[in-house]
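Repro case for the chain-ordering regression, as requested:
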Amino acid sequence: MRVATALAASCPAAAEDGFFEKRVRPILANRCYACHGPHAGAGQAGLRLDSIEGMLLGGRSGPAVVPGQASVSLLIHAVNHDTSLQMPPKVKLPIAEIATLTRWVDEGAHWPGARPTARPRTEAASESGFTEEERAHWAFQPVRDPPVPAGGPTPIDAFIGGRLESEGLRPARRADRRTLIRRATMDLHGLLPTPAEVRGFVENDSGAAFERVVDRLLASPRYGERWGRHWLDVARYADSNGMDDNIVHGDAWRYRDYVIAAFNDDKPYDRFVREQLAGDVITRWGEAARAEGLIATGFLMLGPKMVGEDDPVKQKLDFADEQLATTSRAFLALTIDCARCHDHKFDPIRSSDYYAMLGMFTSTKTVLTYRVTSKLNATALAGPDADRKLSEIERRFDYHSDFVTNYNRATTPEQVVQAQQEALEDALEEYLEIPKAMAVAEGQPDDLPVMLRGSHLTPGAIAPRGVPAVLASRQPAIAERSSGRRELADWLARPDHPLAARVMANRIWKWHFGEGIVRTPDNFGTLGDRPDHPELLDWLASRFVESGWSVKSLHRRIMLSSAYQRAYAPNPAAEARDPENRLLWRANRRRMEAEAIRDSLLAVAGRLDLAAGGKTMRHRNFTNLNAMALSRDPELYETRRRSVYLPVLRSALYEVLAAFDFASPSAPSGRRGTTMVAPQALFMMNSPLVEEASRHFARRVLDQGGAADATRIRLAHELAYAREPAEAEIASWSAFLDQYESAASSRDDAWQALCRILVSSNEYLYVQ
Amino acid sequence: MQPNRRARERFPRREALRQMGAGFGSLALSALLAEEAAATGPLAVREPHFAPRAKRVIMLFMFGGPSHIDTFDPKPVLNRDSGKPLPFAKPRIISFPRRGGDLIGSPFSFTRHGESGAEVSELFPHLAGIVDELAIVRSMHCTNPRHGGAVLEWHTGSDTFIRPALGSWLTYGLGSENRNLPGYITICQALAEGGANNFGAAFLPAAHQGTPLGYGNVKAEDATFPFIGDGGRTRLQRMELDMLADVSRRQMEREGPDSELESRIATFELAFRMQTEAPEIQRIDGESEATRRLYGLDDPVTADFGRQCLMARRFSESGVRFVQCNSNGWDHHFDLKNGLTKMCMQVDKPIAALIKDLRGSGLLDETLVIWGGEFGRTPTAENADGRDHNPHGFTMWLAGGGAKAGITYGGTDEYGYYGVENKVHFHDLHATVLHLLGLDHTRLTYRHAGRDFRLTDVHGEVVHGLIA
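-- result from build under test --
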């Protein structure tokens, strides 16, 4: 053992004794003994510094010195105040004293008269023994497949009806057809129904008419654009890094299109999970699916990363932490990342669980090199040959980029810099030409130690790679060369997993109703909400798995229930008993989301461009958008395509979407906020987008609405509200038009004002 | 003095409403609803934890990392040893090791000023004149040696995660005194190095995010609020809003009352008022010639930052809780002598003017002014005539708002590399700022993703030595 030999080699020697007694011991005595000395009992934090044994044995944070290696000795880090552990706590030692201690440790930490017998304490990984109470948490129990109670008309209604009845609540009547098709179309497409679609449904009196509407909506590519966007919230999707440097993710769009296609194709959810976590290593779907699998792992790549981090080890751990946090919240609705510095305060997740899972991601290749402005990994889509070529270009690019960033201006000749810059530009040009995905690859598999207090400068005991112990009676066996991601993915996609199906079924329910059965869709831990209808959640999860994890079949089940089709009807008695509508006695009234607001504005104006998919981020990979104004480059958003295709610049979001609570792509989000603030009103009153949309909307009404005010007002109403105006409304609008025209001296302006009021109104913006 | 008196005199709100109300039947109701929304909304005024010393903050952010050893922290030993190697170890992590050199002394001379005798370099002649108002903290330190990390660390307390900004925590804790304006405004802030994360609300309700007035590349005189109208359509907009209120009322008559829908219509009234008030505050035409000269608006070198400072005073006296002025370009990796001189000239006079002006109006006592960047700079040379990033010891200062005037607190080692005496981490200064505003940093928490978050995470101690 190195500790022992270092000591043996340096002992004993009178000169060293003198150095210690004259220089080192006084520092320890004056500065440290008060808390870690002979009169301090076991010492603060279990550490004694009055013997070499005490130092080697260490305290709660681990051994205090590694003889001969000041650079990895906790004592030296602590007196330098360069970690979270800073000693002495208030005042930093004079530089001379730090230098003395450093020299002493580097020279072997010689302690007069000491026999080097002590071994560093290695803290046993925290025991995975859980209390009964911890194990009993509802979300960790196996999914039961409960029998459907009596009642109806659908099984969902039977589960819900029981509680409504026992609480004495009468459910609202069925919504009228116009309301229903507006709700369903917004729900599945994020758009409003056209007047023709409304008419078709209203005039079809068949009992299966609504079912047909649902099937038509599910079969349209507009569906994937809407529901794919929901998942992109969870995947904290962005086209740029946006943590510190706003580096362009020039290939992220492939992941966005992959997600949209997955929903449109009703890709089985278990496969969707596997592909996103380990699509690069799973071969079972054949060569044709290779590209898809690679692109899917963009899920792990897309997060915000502090690329300007000078400490490569911290950077690696931070990047992996972000991957772990996203995986944990997206698929498990757990906050495993809370256990980075200590055991989870509320859930039975140990710090060792965290590092066991983190090891899978640190064993994964995410970037080319861990250093400042580290470059994300990419994989060529055409196959291994193309990928070898790409790797070679990446190596060159990385080298030149490092040079150009770090050269010394005082000593580097101009021509050298210029040559490097040209070589960098050449490499980038070649790089851009190769079709590729932001994708992880397998790295060097290795287990991590538990980092005490979350600091890599204080490593503790090794935590073998694995999954959270409270969720797994048996750990998956990790193959020799595997990072463990593949095993993690297989474990997550097991039909009997307690969380995977529940979490996704709850998300789908939430995106339909506005609230989940569990109202904290990203946290099923002990501080999360409890399910309002636990049996229903389990029944839905069971059917979800049974259907081959078909998301579309879950939509059909939910939308064909009476619960989904209820009216938004006031009922003071019910309101008093259940103001939050947890028991679903009525429909919820919901404001359109940011994308739906923009898309619908363009659609009523007849201006929405329905072109699907493809690259829309114009800036090149590796560009740092921080060149000030670039982040707000208005041209980026000049397109009239659906909002899901607009580039998402993290930390510089498009202000139209940001104004209406677009999900922050900084972390997974299964539940957007709905704020109501004055800037949203300013947007309706003054923004160029509303100005332009209302002008075109007015033009459309004038061109297509016949010659009379009344017929034009009727068309405007149908487009905006999916209903016809009452006579009184027509009269009121006519009066407004006249009044406004005389003030503005323009009838066209008056029509534009009418259209702006329609799209600003609550009836337009809220779906019920 | 009443904090908002001057503002109220300029904008007699109720009177204006009465006048606008003439002929518009629905306005009275809408206005009432707007008042209600403001009283209960996320920006409603909330009581602090204990009696505050300051009511609001003006942050003067020097983006890039101003050199402390050339401005507020003279180092005779460094000048003596200029050209020699640093006699102790550099930090474990440094940003540009390949460019590093030996010690390099300051090209600027220092003199003692004021009754406090605080030392200020020749770069800040105007600040030297108000030095008795300042609490100069020479022992600041933070964790991250890169702009992105350190800028985020200053603004949000974290260089690892995306977290709410200091200004967001303040409006979350205290609400906003002026219901027609945002509670947190940042003027011409760069979108570099963390971008909007630096003034973002993260998981706090979106109403707490900083409202940007222009961005880093925009001139202060061109900076406007997002989507604000130009005032050209006021009368027509009034008609539209009345019709909108009408349409909304009809819907509620049909479908029953809904407070959410009512509140939403009320936000249009708020927006309408904001559209009147905000540009009025930005317009500085009404300021006297003497004031304009005081802030340096008559000199192209100081005009831009002078305008920022003057706007900050006007927003602040209108009750905006947190205003930030931003000076961009303090990253002097080479040619420090000229680069730093240029930056100091741009801000020196305007900042001194702001302090004097606030003192003159009595507002300084309840307005905390903070000056500083994300880190300082190394005593060793970079690229021969510049200095590298140094988060281990640097200077910031406070003025007004309960900060102890005329003191120099803490210190760096004899070369100015590391803080050694009474070190103050960003977390500590954050805790102190919250304390001055009447908030206990350990109790100002927000429950998110399964736990309670705070600005200072698990760190931070109030620096009582900085408090008057």
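Ordering looks correct now. The radius of gyration of chain B is 23 Å.
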